[in-house]
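Title: Prediction job returns without error message
Component: structure pipeline
Severity: low
Priority: P3
Assignee: unassigned

Description:
Job completed but the reporter wants confirmation the result is attached to the right record. Sequence as submitted:
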Amino acid sequence: MIQLGDKIKSLRKQKNISQEVFANYLGVSFQAVSKWENGITLPDITMIPAIASFFSVSTDELFDFNLFEVKKQVTEICDEAYKYRFTDPEKSEHILRDGLKKFPGNEIILNNLLYTLDFQTRADEVIGLCKTLIESTKDDEVKYDACRILAACYKENGKQDLIKPTLEMIPEVYFSKLELLAAMLDGADSYEAAQKQKYLSAVSLIDMLIIAGKRLKEDGETEKAISQFKIAEKVMDAFEEDFCENKWFNATLKEETGDQRREVDKLLKE
Protein backbone atom coordinates (compact mmCIF):
# COMPACT_ATOMS: atom_id res chain seq x y z
CA MET A 1 0.00 0.00 0.00
CA ILE A 2 1.37 3.40 -0.96
CA GLN A 3 2.20 5.74 1.95
CA LEU A 4 -0.03 8.77 2.46
CA GLY A 5 2.83 11.23 2.03
CA ASP A 6 3.84 9.66 -1.26
CA LYS A 7 0.23 9.74 -2.46
CA ILE A 8 -0.14 13.45 -1.60
CA LYS A 9 3.12 14.23 -3.36
CA SER A 10 2.06 12.26 -6.44
CA LEU A 11 -1.35 13.93 -6.62
CA ARG A 12 0.16 17.38 -6.09
CA LYS A 13 2.61 16.87 -8.96
CA GLN A 14 -0.17 15.56 -11.21
CA LYS A 15 -2.03 18.79 -10.47
CA ASN A 16 1.22 20.69 -11.19
CA ILE A 17 1.10 22.92 -8.10
CA SER A 18 3.71 23.83 -5.52
CA GLN A 19 3.73 22.91 -1.86
CA GLU A 20 3.04 26.58 -1.09
CA VAL A 21 -0.14 26.70 -3.19
CA PHE A 22 -1.42 23.47 -1.64
CA ALA A 23 -0.52 24.67 1.85
CA ASN A 24 -2.37 27.97 1.34
CA TYR A 25 -5.52 26.10 0.30
CA LEU A 26 -5.43 24.08 3.52
CA GLY A 27 -4.37 26.97 5.72
CA VAL A 28 -1.12 25.32 6.84
CA SER A 29 2.55 26.07 6.25
CA PHE A 30 4.42 24.64 3.28
CA GLN A 31 6.80 23.10 5.84
CA ALA A 32 3.86 21.04 7.14
CA VAL A 33 3.15 19.78 3.62
CA SER A 34 6.82 18.96 3.16
CA LYS A 35 6.82 16.91 6.37
CA TRP A 36 3.74 14.99 5.18
CA GLU A 37 5.31 14.20 1.83
CA ASN A 38 8.54 13.05 3.46
CA GLY A 39 6.71 10.80 5.93
CA ILE A 40 7.84 12.79 8.98
CA THR A 41 4.33 13.64 10.16
CA LEU A 42 0.74 12.98 9.09
CA PRO A 43 -2.08 15.48 8.48
CA ASP A 44 -4.66 15.90 11.25
CA ILE A 45 -7.59 13.54 10.59
CA THR A 46 -10.01 16.47 10.25
CA MET A 47 -7.99 17.69 7.25
CA ILE A 48 -8.19 14.44 5.31
CA PRO A 49 -11.59 15.15 3.67
CA ALA A 50 -10.36 18.59 2.58
CA ILE A 51 -7.18 17.09 1.08
CA ALA A 52 -9.21 14.48 -0.79
CA SER A 53 -11.60 17.16 -2.03
CA PHE A 54 -8.74 19.32 -3.30
CA PHE A 55 -7.44 16.48 -5.44
CA SER A 56 -10.97 15.36 -6.46
CA VAL A 57 -10.48 11.86 -5.07
CA SER A 58 -12.27 9.91 -2.35
CA THR A 59 -10.62 9.53 1.03
CA ASP A 60 -10.27 5.83 0.28
CA GLU A 61 -8.45 6.62 -2.97
CA LEU A 62 -6.20 9.00 -1.05
CA PHE A 63 -5.09 6.09 1.11
CA ASP A 64 -4.95 3.74 -1.90
CA PHE A 65 -7.28 1.18 -0.32
CA ASN A 66 -9.25 -1.57 -1.98
CA LEU A 67 -12.59 0.24 -1.89
CA PHE A 68 -14.76 -2.86 -1.51
CA GLU A 69 -12.67 -4.24 1.34
CA VAL A 70 -12.49 -0.84 3.03
CA LYS A 71 -16.26 -0.42 2.86
CA LYS A 72 -16.74 -3.85 4.39
CA GLN A 73 -14.32 -3.18 7.26
CA VAL A 74 -15.68 0.32 7.88
CA THR A 75 -19.21 -1.06 8.07
CA GLU A 76 -18.07 -3.65 10.61
CA ILE A 77 -16.41 -0.94 12.73
CA CYS A 78 -19.48 1.31 12.64
CA ASP A 79 -21.85 -1.58 13.38
CA GLU A 80 -19.78 -2.55 16.41
CA ALA A 81 -19.68 1.06 17.63
CA TYR A 82 -23.45 1.40 17.16
CA LYS A 83 -24.04 -1.36 19.72
CA TYR A 84 -22.76 0.99 22.43
CA ARG A 85 -23.85 4.38 21.01
CA PHE A 86 -26.70 4.86 23.49
CA THR A 87 -25.57 2.74 26.45
CA ASP A 88 -21.84 3.55 26.49
CA PRO A 89 -20.95 6.44 24.12
CA GLU A 90 -17.36 6.53 25.40
CA LYS A 91 -16.83 2.92 24.33
CA SER A 92 -18.51 3.66 21.00
CA GLU A 93 -16.18 6.62 20.47
CA HIS A 94 -13.15 4.50 21.37
CA ILE A 95 -14.10 1.89 18.75
CA LEU A 96 -14.47 4.60 16.11
CA ARG A 97 -11.21 6.30 17.10
CA ASP A 98 -9.43 2.98 16.69
CA GLY A 99 -11.10 2.67 13.30
CA LEU A 100 -9.75 6.07 12.30
CA LYS A 101 -6.23 4.92 13.13
CA LYS A 102 -6.69 2.24 10.51
CA PHE A 103 -8.68 4.38 8.07
CA PRO A 104 -7.71 8.02 8.80
CA GLY A 105 -10.24 10.55 7.59
CA ASN A 106 -12.85 7.98 6.54
CA GLU A 107 -16.06 9.99 6.13
CA ILE A 108 -18.40 7.24 7.30
CA ILE A 109 -16.46 6.69 10.53
CA LEU A 110 -16.23 10.45 11.11
CA ASN A 111 -19.97 10.75 10.53
CA ASN A 112 -20.64 8.01 13.09
CA LEU A 113 -18.19 9.64 15.50
CA LEU A 114 -20.39 12.75 15.63
CA TYR A 115 -23.11 10.70 17.35
CA THR A 116 -20.82 9.93 20.30
CA LEU A 117 -19.73 13.52 21.07
CA ASP A 118 -21.51 15.65 23.65
CA PHE A 119 -22.87 18.79 21.97
CA GLN A 120 -22.23 21.04 24.98
CA THR A 121 -18.88 19.97 26.37
CA ARG A 122 -17.39 19.27 22.92
CA ALA A 123 -19.26 21.76 20.79
CA ASP A 124 -16.15 23.12 19.04
CA GLU A 125 -15.10 19.63 17.98
CA VAL A 126 -18.61 18.79 16.73
CA ILE A 127 -18.97 22.07 14.82
CA GLY A 128 -15.50 21.78 13.26
CA LEU A 129 -16.01 18.20 12.15
CA CYS A 130 -19.48 18.92 10.76
CA LYS A 131 -18.21 21.88 8.74
CA THR A 132 -15.32 19.83 7.37
CA LEU A 133 -17.64 17.04 6.22
CA ILE A 134 -20.18 19.48 4.73
CA GLU A 135 -17.53 21.30 2.73
CA SER A 136 -15.53 18.32 1.51
CA THR A 137 -17.63 15.17 1.20
CA LYS A 138 -19.08 14.01 -2.09
CA ASP A 139 -21.54 11.74 -0.26
CA ASP A 140 -24.89 13.53 0.08
CA GLU A 141 -25.97 11.25 2.92
CA VAL A 142 -22.91 12.22 4.96
CA LYS A 143 -23.25 15.90 4.02
CA TYR A 144 -26.90 16.28 4.96
CA ASP A 145 -26.54 14.27 8.15
CA ALA A 146 -23.66 16.57 9.13
CA CYS A 147 -25.96 19.55 8.41
CA ARG A 148 -28.62 18.09 10.69
CA ILE A 149 -26.13 17.38 13.49
CA LEU A 150 -24.59 20.84 13.14
CA ALA A 151 -28.02 22.46 13.47
CA ALA A 152 -28.77 20.31 16.54
CA CYS A 153 -25.46 21.38 18.09
CA TYR A 154 -26.26 25.04 17.43
CA LYS A 155 -29.65 24.57 19.10
CA GLU A 156 -28.09 22.85 22.09
CA ASN A 157 -25.71 25.79 22.53
CA GLY A 158 -28.27 28.58 22.04
CA LYS A 159 -27.09 29.69 18.60
CA GLN A 160 -30.61 30.05 17.21
CA ASP A 161 -29.62 32.38 14.37
CA LEU A 162 -27.39 29.70 12.82
CA ILE A 163 -29.95 26.89 12.80
CA LYS A 164 -32.13 27.89 9.85
CA PRO A 165 -29.25 28.74 7.43
CA THR A 166 -27.71 25.35 8.25
CA LEU A 167 -30.93 23.42 7.68
CA GLU A 168 -31.59 25.34 4.44
CA MET A 169 -28.64 23.43 2.95
CA ILE A 170 -30.73 20.24 3.13
CA PRO A 171 -33.04 19.81 0.10
CA GLU A 172 -36.76 19.25 0.68
CA VAL A 173 -37.70 15.60 0.12
CA TYR A 174 -41.28 14.36 -0.19
CA PHE A 175 -40.48 10.67 -0.27
CA SER A 176 -37.58 8.54 0.87
CA LYS A 177 -35.52 5.97 -0.96
CA LEU A 178 -36.72 3.36 1.53
CA GLU A 179 -40.36 4.12 0.69
CA LEU A 180 -39.70 3.64 -3.02
CA LEU A 181 -37.72 0.45 -2.44
CA ALA A 182 -40.52 -0.97 -0.30
CA ALA A 183 -43.18 -0.08 -2.86
CA MET A 184 -41.37 -1.07 -6.05
CA LEU A 185 -39.23 -4.07 -5.14
CA ASP A 186 -40.36 -7.58 -4.25
CA GLY A 187 -39.52 -10.16 -1.66
CA ALA A 188 -36.77 -9.70 0.90
CA ASP A 189 -35.59 -6.35 -0.49
CA SER A 190 -39.07 -4.85 -0.21
CA TYR A 191 -39.53 -6.25 3.29
CA GLU A 192 -36.21 -4.87 4.54
CA ALA A 193 -36.97 -1.39 3.20
CA ALA A 194 -40.48 -1.46 4.67
CA GLN A 195 -39.23 -2.47 8.12
CA LYS A 196 -36.56 0.23 8.16
CA GLN A 197 -38.96 2.93 6.95
CA LYS A 198 -41.61 1.82 9.45
CA TYR A 199 -39.10 2.23 12.26
CA LEU A 200 -37.99 5.68 11.13
CA SER A 201 -41.52 6.88 10.38
CA ALA A 202 -42.91 5.78 13.73
CA VAL A 203 -40.21 7.55 15.75
CA SER A 204 -40.51 10.68 13.58
CA LEU A 205 -44.31 10.77 13.82
CA ILE A 206 -44.20 10.58 17.61
CA ASP A 207 -41.59 13.36 17.70
CA MET A 208 -43.72 15.59 15.47
CA LEU A 209 -46.84 15.04 17.62
CA ILE A 210 -44.89 15.96 20.76
CA ILE A 211 -43.44 19.09 19.13
CA ALA A 212 -46.84 20.17 17.78
CA GLY A 213 -48.44 19.60 21.16
CA LYS A 214 -45.81 21.66 22.96
CA ARG A 215 -46.28 24.58 20.57
CA LEU A 216 -50.06 24.44 20.98
CA LYS A 217 -49.63 24.40 24.73
CA GLU A 218 -47.39 27.45 24.60
CA ASP A 219 -50.09 29.25 22.61
CA GLY A 220 -52.73 28.40 25.21
CA GLU A 221 -54.44 25.77 23.02
CA THR A 222 -54.54 23.25 25.84
CA GLU A 223 -57.22 20.92 24.44
CA LYS A 224 -55.54 20.71 21.04
CA ALA A 225 -52.20 20.09 22.74
CA ILE A 226 -53.63 17.22 24.79
CA SER A 227 -55.08 15.70 21.61
CA GLN A 228 -51.59 15.58 20.07
CA PHE A 229 -50.07 13.98 23.16
CA LYS A 230 -52.85 11.36 23.30
CA ILE A 231 -52.38 10.50 19.63
CA ALA A 232 -48.65 10.06 20.29
CA GLU A 233 -49.55 7.78 23.19
CA LYS A 234 -51.83 5.71 20.94
CA VAL A 235 -49.13 5.41 18.29
CA MET A 236 -46.71 4.05 20.88
CA ASP A 237 -49.38 1.69 22.23
CA ALA A 238 -49.94 0.40 18.69
CA PHE A 239 -46.37 -0.94 18.64
CA GLU A 240 -46.65 -2.83 21.94
CA GLU A 241 -46.83 -6.16 20.10
CA ASP A 242 -44.29 -5.31 17.40
CA PHE A 243 -41.10 -7.36 17.15
CA CYS A 244 -37.46 -6.49 16.55
CA GLU A 245 -35.58 -7.56 13.41
CA ASN A 246 -32.22 -8.05 15.10
CA LYS A 247 -30.26 -8.03 11.85
CA TRP A 248 -31.22 -4.36 11.37
CA PHE A 249 -32.12 -3.02 14.82
CA ASN A 250 -30.90 -3.35 18.39
CA ALA A 251 -34.24 -2.56 20.02
CA THR A 252 -37.97 -2.81 19.43
CA LEU A 253 -39.93 0.35 18.70
CA LYS A 254 -41.40 0.08 22.19
CA GLU A 255 -37.88 0.15 23.67
CA GLU A 256 -36.68 2.84 21.25
CA THR A 257 -39.55 5.18 22.17
CA GLY A 258 -39.17 4.77 25.94
CA ASP A 259 -37.94 8.35 26.44
CA GLN A 260 -40.75 9.70 24.25
CA ARG A 261 -43.36 7.81 26.31
CA ARG A 262 -41.99 9.22 29.54
CA GLU A 263 -42.11 12.71 28.06
CA VAL A 264 -45.70 12.27 26.87
CA ASP A 265 -46.74 10.92 30.29
CA LYS A 266 -45.19 13.97 31.92
CA LEU A 267 -46.86 16.39 29.48
CA LEU A 268 -50.29 14.85 30.04
CA LYS A 269 -49.93 15.20 33.81
CA GLU A 270 -48.92 18.87 33.70
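Comment from assignee: result matches the submitted record. DSSP finds 16 helices and no strands in the chain.
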